[in-house]
Amino acid sequence: xxxxxxxxxxxxxxxxxxxxxxxxxxxxxxxxxxxAFNEIKKDASFQQEYKRLLQDFAGRPxxxxxxxxxSADLGGAQIYFKREDLNHTGAHKINHCLGxxxxxxxxxxxxxxxxxxxxxxxxxxxTAAAVVGLECEIYMxxxxxxxxxxxVVKMKLLGAKVVAVNExxxxxxxxxxxxxxxxxxxxxxxxxxxxxxxxxxxxxxMVAYFQSIIGQEVLEQSKEKFxxxxxxxxxxxxxxxxxLGLFHDFLDEDEVKLxxxxxxxxGLDSGQHAATLTLxxxxxxxxxxxxxxxxxxGSPSTVHSIASGLDYPGIGPFHAYLKDEKRxxxxxxxDKEAIKAFSYTSKxxxxxxxxxxxxxxxYAYHLAPTLSPEEVIVINLSxxxxxxxxxxxxxxxEIAFESGLK
Length: 406
Ligand SMILES: Cc1ncc(COP(=O)(O)O)c(C=O)c1O
Fold this sequence. Notes:
There is one protein chain. By secondary structure, the chain is of the alpha/beta class. It is built from 17 helices and 14 strands. Strands 3-4-14-9-10-13 form a six-stranded mixed sheet, sandwiched between helices. It has a four-stranded parallel sheet with strand order 7-6-5-8, with helices on both faces. Strands 1-2 form a two-stranded antiparallel sheet. Helix 2 (44-57) runs antiparallel to helix 4, helix 5 runs parallel beside helix 7 and helix 10 (213-226) packs across helix 11 (241-247). It is globular, with a radius of gyration of 19 Å. Pyridoxal-5'-phosphate (PLP) binds next to helix 5, helix 11 and helix 15.
């Protein structure tokens, strides 16, 4: 049996993936973060304050909810939702933002900065910075700003400065590039809070550590609700933080099948998708070695997904390793399949899911009828869909009001 939970190694590698591919000027800054991260794992007062904020501020534990209507409709496995959408700020991102804000404060930094795609990470970070008492600066692609204008207003209301990025595809990759460029100049006073399990060591390990609360709770809740482990855990995969948060504590439980769902956008052969593990190749991006969707010259491709938070040509290095090890199966769902799951879940369960999470739902709804009623699927409902309503109606008006999956 592999001991996945012992990864990464001391240099931040998950097999051939990960590492810290940064200019020498950032080595010192990232080493400082790594040392602090290793310290807080054993620091009782940090852990106590983190726990207090997760419970009393963010509202954890999030419920594990049996979706009775949909389970009955589909006639196969029992389907449970892990309700990360009920967290304060409406998604899983608050879990690691609170941890990173406390770490930044401990390091004596004045400001936190980050990139954001759907705006969920930006809102979560602005919220965490406000409660911990730090300045906050968020970089966001201008296309994403137009799609997620409510989140832009929220970030400003929470006291953050939002910087529009207009380069390239004006989305998540360009926002990361831009934010990193500024961080190189300002690292002494600033904490860079990456929004997923991506980037140079120690970020992939640190974000996974803070997000693993999701799977820890599912382990406990499974015992209470169905007195055994689930058969399947399913999560959408952008950079990979909600998926790794759910999977982490189950990695060594071989009987639990783990499935990550990538966005196949307008189709895997359309050139307009962000299915990095399905169609990418090993390469380097944003300070890490991982799978990358690349052009012929090796540069990262422009990618597409209806869900801004999945629109990224790289992937967390732990996922790259888990794919090669075949411990996690990576599949995909299209824009249309996600919109159908978005509409169907709203109507049948009274829950409007984020378009990101709707990719995981779409795949699970296709799998459930092939399983028996004794089997249990847990889907990570990574966020709420209020942010997506206008965009979904504008792009797919006919589907967004439909009630079925066909
Ligand atoms: C609700 C939601 N789910 C999922 C994601 C994808 O990120 P990750 O793969 O890191 O969980 C995002 C990113 O913004 C998001 O907002």
